[in-house]
What does this fold into?
Amino acid sequence: MTVALLVNGRPYERSVESRRLLVDFLRHELQLHGTHVGCEQGVCGACTVLLDGEPVKSCLMLAPQAHGHSITTVEGLAGRGELHPVQQAFRDAHALQCGYCTPGFLLGAVALADRGVALEGAALREELAGNLCRCTGYQNIVEAVERYLRQAAAGRRDG
Amino acid sequence: MQIQETFTVDAPPTAVWKFFEDIERVARCVPGVQSVDVLGPDRYKVLATQKVGFISATFEMATQVESKDPLKSLALSSVGKSVKGAIGNLRSKDRVDFEATPEGGTRVTLTSEVAVGGMLGALGHKAIVSKSKEITEKFAQALQAEIRAGEAGR
Amino acid sequence: MKPAPLEYLTALTVEEALAALARFDGNVRLLAGGQSLVPLLSMRLLRPMAVVDINRIPGLDRIVAADGVVRVGALARYSALEASPVIRERVPLLAKAIPFVGDRQIRNRGTLGGALCHADPAGEMALCAVTLGARLRIVGHSGLRELDAEAFFQGPYTTALEPNEMLETVEFPDGAGTEAVVVEHARRHGDFAVVSVAATGLRAPDGSWRWMRIGLGAVADRARYARRASEGLAGTRLQPADVTAAAARCLEEAGPTSDVRASAEYRRHLVPILVERALEDLARRR
Amino acid sequence: MDKLPWLGASVKRKEDDRLLRGSGRFLDDVEETLTLHVAIGRCPYPHARIRSIDVTRALGHSGVEAVLTGQQVVARTEAITALRPFAGSAPTAFYGMAQEVARYEGEPVVAVAAVDRYVAEDALELIDIDYEPLPHVVTVEDALRPGAPQLHATVPSNVVVESTVRAGEPDRRLADATVTVEGTFRINRVSGAPIETRGVIARWAEDSSTLELWASTQTPHLLRAQLAHCLRMDETDVRVIAPDVGGAFGLKIGVYPEDIIAALLAIDTRRPVKWIEDRTEFFRGAAHAREAVHTLTLAADRDGTLRALRDRYLIDLGAYHGPLGPPLLTNVMLAGPYRLHDADIHRRVVLTNKVPMGAYRGYGQAESNYVREVLVDRLARRLGQDPADFRRRNLLRPDELPFKNVSGVTYDSGDYARGLDLALSRVGYETFRARQKESGQQGRHVGVGMSCYVEFTGYPSSAFLGRGGARFGAYESVTVRMDRAGRAAISTGVSTFGQGTETTFAQIAASLLGLDPADVAIHRGDSKGTPYSVGGFASRTMIAGAGAIEKAAGQIRDKMLRIGGTILGVDPAALETTTGVVRRRDDPSVQVSIQRVSEAAFLGYPLPPGEDPGLEATAYFDPPSSAFGYGTVVVQVEVNARSGEFALQRYILVHDCGTQVNPMIVEGQVQGAVAQGIAAALFEELVYDRDTGQLVNGTMVDYFMPTAADLPVFELDHLETPSPVTPFGIKGVGEGGTIAAAAAITNAVCDALAPFGVELDRLPVTAESIWRALAAARAKG
It folds into this structure.
């Protein structure tokens, strides 16, 4: 069946087998390798992308479900230019080590900023609990997201 | 996990034992059974479908009589894998013990130990725990009915 | 693992969905949020011939308060319920329970109807439906029928839904002015509950409780409304003696099994502790 | 040598840019046309004979190119060798696939290569395998019981190897001591569980008739050596490339059965063959870790002087000896930071029908710390001494170092007591003890627990390893090459799996060459074009790598000074390299750019007489001895004595890893290790059902890896005592954080519940295990 959708603002149309997972479609049909597979069981969150601006686990969706929707993957954040503010915040706070879970966290944080919530501490940790990381112990990730959300909130106030 | 069911039949052990010698009839009492074929002396192929919540699987099992102690006990063991539905495999050891009751009937104790492996075992664990109890209960009821029918017909 | 081959159908109306359900002699699944369904497809535990995507059926996700009830469409996403002022004010128990479900990503896609039809014995949505005495409107070829939540759930992952039926709406009693609490013990944040307790009640002006409803999750083959414990608290002020009695009655309702999360004995030990914790929390509310 | 400019600088990481953009290149991101995808059929039973395999229907399935069975694999390959076997280990022929008997749930039995993974899995279901389940054992006790099923004919009574280490006169000390305590501890089976599972791409290069293998590995060169041996090929004809690796933690060391399977299928089909491990395969195939049962005895005098230690322990090896092998450092580090001269350590490595065990961040040190430090607390309590005072009395003082411990390794340097006191001061230990009595009334119990450790980092030398039968050295190697632009490139066999080596290696090279780290490129993980390397594990890479860079970059620096001397007409001895130039030390205005010097090297003019062109050096560094980091963890918990629920209120770690090359990266390593330490202590366990022998929780849903909401904020502090025996005084730091978590938390819970006399002796510590321990203590009365 055919799937027509927007990914990072660009239109794509592909024919796809109906059983193909959305994450496999993004990675192997559209060659967008920034979204990663960690478990295919809906737990680790490495496959998180934005579906119409909201973080979802793309291993929990079949590709045909994305028809007519707009998806944002990590490749859509900075493109080839400067790092997106959330990427810069992760870099500054050493909030990544192996980098395999990082795209999932980045997109979750961007969605939070878009919702205008400047969460921190325990409330933020609960909001990020859908993404597992095995290298950092989360501390620097929480700090990076806190800093980014404060920046984004301030940006909105001045903007 | 081990499950035990006990029931009494008002037929003497000799009659009950005679019923249990006909393994095909016994196998037909297994809930969800579809077919029983004789492979050889004391060896059978049993096809049975089990539905656990939303998961269903059809198992093709090789069942073997492990030990026979006339009028006292019968032990069966089965090994099988799913041929339709969820991937998984099944091992079970079933033991039936007979005991004459003072009133001239027979107390039958069914002890079965079911192990479901593969994906089904891994994920269906929660559902299977309660389901195995139900399967054994139904098996016991079917045996009971079948024996009584046999008795009445005689 | 990857899903086995399947057909993917999209229904634009309820009728189309029901027609599709009838086509594959029961070997077909509805795809709403997919948060429980898709992993089961990937692990090939479920091998339907087809899935029917009902996400594009308009009007199935509404949250409407009217004539003393709150009607929630089966396709309402957890995140929408979480953000809904109607739910916060009129179905506070649901609002308290949702944060325990999965995580942000799962709550963005998962639906109330999907959770109830999945019928996990430790599921928070089933617990709320049973505790609140919700009514479930089910649509099928032979028209509409309504079921109480307690009648809808029949065992682990087993409901009263017939293969060619679909859950359309869930009707909660209007709980404006009521107090609600959910207490849960789990091995990890967002995990299935080891034991969960839901409690909600209406306080009379004199400070006593006009009625109280307590529900228990993960301690039986389905979510349980603790009837005797609940009725015993009507008219009381949740004094320590009332609370202890209710906790003991709840324990009588519990029949947990053991699994990798906890033993049956420990679940039994936790039931009265969590019931007391929930009721003490309500008692403290002014 | 003035202080190296970039040593100790928290430089932002070179790895970050590509990883943040999502343009990192992990194994599954490597895609080639015509690639076949592999699905592997695995034994669903813990122990079974494979009577027959019928693959005809699978071979006929459209899209299937090849099917491989155990019979072919065993015929065409050698068994997997062990990189670090214990001396005297009985062989356990571990092939790429089971042929007659499969010995653990998950062992490969058949493999299909097809046009894509979905089709390959469809084809797997068409393969009929007739299994005959055999009796199994899933606990070490069952495996040792007389008459237990024997897993390997070559391993009598399932004991792969047995060893005893003795020092001093333990028996006499234990008999004379006034107080002895004994405990039996059960350590849980866990997994490193990186977010990226394993994976491999094998490709037969027709032109060079060589095998190219992309693998998610920490040790490309060791994998290359082991794989060549298994395939009966010369190492020269095998190339291993490690792209970005999504976390490893010791689990991606050496060759695995799936590497052999993919290689054979690639050779047969003459097409690239890719296998990506899914998570259910991961829990039944990737190395498990740590499971062991210890019966430990400690003896002390009335005044609290520790006298002797006796440990009888069993390591649960699983069904085969894996590519690396069971943890060795349990034995070596059992005595920890204490003054002990008398010990008797008896170890048996036992086979069970479970996934073979391998290394996991610490390689035995978390296990030995747990049993010792929990028993030390009980001993102190038995003597009526405060656990901190007992430890202060027995900790080795700085002046006693270097100190050879009872297992024969020599601690180099450190101030163990200062680490303990610093950690205790942060928790306000003195005032806490006072407040603790008063807060115990309302059923809420607050406790503080501690655990001291010394950490074995890096290997003491290739000779030490070679004498022990290891199949790898302790060295590390690099090639450093300048280019015409005056920038440097380091080629290293060490792959990138999150540890930040690309950045730290660049910092050291830049410091020595007078460049900015941004001007140092890193080519990593490819066995072709990098000198023989050992790889990234055992907190050794920084120590050994820094030594190799120091030598290679040093040679290049000296040559640049000579060429600079020729260009400037100055005696090279008066010159230095710094900030991109070669200049006079006493008159910086006399200078020439490193770019100009490099160009001269590559033009071959102007050069000093007899100087060869080129600016490149390869160096190997074999550390003379290992370095011993150390530290103390102090934990504060609050426990609900009725339900067993508890809260981890504070987690404090003070550690010393010698000179820190990049403090930001060091802190990241410690935080990540602490999180995994807490994960294994409180959340995770791989549970096998004793009756069915099956893995009960082999999915991410039921293996409770903690989320951000499950872990507290860690309070870290460090001391910096340079090691006298390593380059720049560096000690390894990758593993330290995992070592002391389980003991410190256990001690804190037991401290909180001291009024009840609660003792905990198994992991993980959960609300239920605390409730059961409370019930047991009450029953004991």
Remarks:
- Chain D has three domains: 16-22+475-621, 32-134+195-248+252-283, 363-456+626-780.
- The interface with chain B takes residues 44-45, 105, 125, 131-133, 280, 689, 691-692, 694-699 of chain D (CB under 8 Å).
